[in-house]
Write a structure and sequence with these properties.
Elements: no helix or strand
Length: 52
């Protein structure tokens, strides 16, 4: 059974920003993106900017 999808208003603050979207029909939440390029190491925690 597909999950009910939520509509959210988005304001792009940067021309290269990607709009969040559901990665599949069964996704529980949105996939979000950052303009930063960084490779996380196993167990590492990092805060990423999402455009503000």
């Amino acid at each position: 059974m597909p999950i009910e999808k939520v509509q959210v208003k988005i304001k792009k603050l940067h021309g290269d920003a990607k709009i969040p979207h559901y990665g599949s029909d069964h996704a529980a939440s949105f996939d979000i993106y950052s303009l930063e390029t960084y490779e996380l190491q196993p167990g590492e925690i990092k805060l990423f900017s999402t455009g503000k």
